[in-house]
Amino acid sequence: MTVDVKQAALDYLDCVRRLDTASMQASYAPDAKVWLPGQGWMEPAGLAALLEGARGLLEDGIRFAHEGVLVDGNRVVVMTACDSPLVKGGSYVNHFCFVMTFDEAGKITELREYTDSAPAVAAFHS
Fold first, then answer.
1. Would you say 24 and 113 are in contact if contact means Cβ atoms under 8 Å apart?
2. Most exposed of 30, 43, 59, 104 (fewest Cβ within 10 Å)?
């Protein structure tokens, strides 16, 4: 694989950080799928819609602090955390493990997000 999948994964998460849903969606292969805890499998547009809903609740996007990146062929695992101030006060604090699989063109074919959904529910659905 000639694409730097580690950098592609970090670039994708930077789009998530900025809530740049158009660039996020452009990072996916045509038949890509996304898995979220409590949501199951969905199309990337479903994840983009969830993040659009969170946009007005976050002061400045999602502030990730990456803790580690593992690469195995075309698969990248990013362990990260966030501490993102909320408009109403307080902060969205959580830990994540993103597992991304890339095609030969460097597009995401599958993304799995492992996280505790309780902090997201408390931050965005209260």
1. no
2. 30
How many independent structural domains does the chain possess? Answer: 1
DSSP count for the chain of H helices, then E strands = 4, 6
Contact between residue 28 and residue 16 where contact means Cβ atoms under 8 Å apart: no
Q: For residue 103, what are the domain limits?
A: 5-124
What's the predicted TM-score (pTM) here? 0.92
CATH number at residue 62: 3.10.450.50
Regions of the chain short of the pLDDT cut 50: none
**Sheet-wide strand order for 108-115:** 40-42, 28-36, 108-115, 91-102, 75-85, 64-72
Show Cβ contacts of residue 124 under 8 Å, excluding neighbours closer than 6 positions.
53, 54, 57, 92
Amino acid, single-letter form, for residue 18: R
